[in-house]
Amino acid sequence: MPVGRPVRHHRGVSTQTLPDVDTRPEGTDTTDDDSPKMFHYVRKNQIAESAVLGSHVVALCGEVFPVTKSPKPGSPVCPECKRIFDGLPPGGDE
């Protein structure tokens, strides 16, 4: 089952926002709140595989990370992912 909820479709590719994952070793710049600082847009078909198998996804901005959390309404979105996504021509729900 996919993590998150679809946002929009462009060029027949569904995308969803996903969290920015901190890959630094434990103990470096950690907080009590484990919430991601921002979420990224990735191809929808990569989300389930990543969530189940732990494989990495590639965001529109180029960030590479495993899926660990799903966004909530109002969550911060990566500005580069948003810029790229907003620049894509509208597509269908394919």
From TrEMBL:
It holds the Pfam family DUF3039. It comes from the Bacteria. Residues 1-37 are annotated as: Disordered. InterPro entries: DUF3039 (IPR021400). This is DUF3039 family protein. Residues 1-12 have a biased composition (Basic residues).
